[in-house]
Design goal:
The chain is of the alpha+beta class. The chain has a single domain (about 5-165), classed as YfbM-like super family (Hypothetical protein yfbM fold), CATH 3.40.1760. Helices cover about 45% and strands about 15% of the residues. It is built from six helices and five strands; from the N terminus they run βααβαββαααβ. A five-stranded antiparallel β-sheet has the order 2-1-5-4-3, sandwiched between helices. A hairpin with a 7-residue loop joins strand 3 (about 75-80) and strand 4 (about 90). It is globular. This is DUF1877 family protein. It comes from Promicromonospora soli. It holds the Pfam family DUF1877.
Length: about 170
């Protein structure tokens, strides 16, 4: 089963409301999640998206690479507790633009050699790294990276903020 990393895109008006009305924010994010599940939209078109359990190895690869102006997997400012592993966090539109530029400008081929099967996730949220060992498969990482890049690219293009959640 494992821990999933999920993202929600919020338009400017929704982003402003989410920061002042946390109950509304969490309800709205739940609605976006339900829409995503029902419509099965590709990452570029989705307002909600999950990279599933591959977040740990992907985050590790990005950290080892360095050079990220913002962390598109676990970065951002705390928004609200969600009952998940960590509180929901957000990247504002400016940070989303920086994350998208980094992701689009960094090919997965440049990252792939940095994958380390011995270190697949951050110990503070993943006390049992063996839970994510299968996610170190290069094809699976490449697919998740491509989807994450498409999601952030679309969010940046629209001027959206992104909420990040580990559940």
């Amino acid at each position: 089963m494992g821990i999933h990393c999920e993202y929600a895109r919020l338009a400017a008006d929704d982003f402003d409301k989410a920061r002042t009305d946390l109950t509304w924010a969490l309800e709205h994010i739940d609605e976006l999640a339900g829409e995503w599940v029902q419509m099965d939209l590709p990452a570029k078109e989705a307002r909600y998206f999950s990279i599933g359990t591959v977040w740990g190895p992907l985050h590790t690869v990005l950290l080892v690479h360095g050079g990220m102006p913002v962390d598109p997997v676990q970065g951002g400012v705390e928004l609200a507790p969600t009952g998940g592993i960590k509180p929901a966090r957000y990247l504002g539109p400016e940070e989303v633009e920086k994350a998208a530029a980094f992701l689009v400008g960094t090919s997965f081929e440049a990252l792939a050699p940095l994958a380390d099967a011995a270190h697949v996730c951050d110990e503070d949220v993943c006390p049992d790294p063996t839970e994510h060992a299968a996610e170190t498969d290069p094809k699976r990482l490449a697919e998740a990276y491509g989807e994450l890049t498409a999601f952030y690219g679309a969010a940046a293009e629209a001027g959206d903020a992104v909420v990040l959640m580990l559940n």
